[in-house]
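Hey,
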Amino acid sequence: MLSGQWIDIVFADLNMPEMSGAELVKKMAEDNLLVSIPVVIVSSERNQERIDELRQLGIRAYLRKPFRPESFREVVQEVLGPAQGGVA
């Protein structure tokens, strides 16, 4: 799916049906076209060592569940930059 269309940002959970979030990040890192797409992991994982491992794999941000909409917006702005045209 990622190679078939333009994607600005990927939000992935650690526990997904087809592959884990960590596996997805590893596969994207191996693909020259996908490696530059920022990945945000959204998970209830609380283990800081595990989160640090994910950062070493290349994730750009980590959003802990449950989260508030404001936190989601902050992560998007952190990863992609502020909205253009005055829309936030």
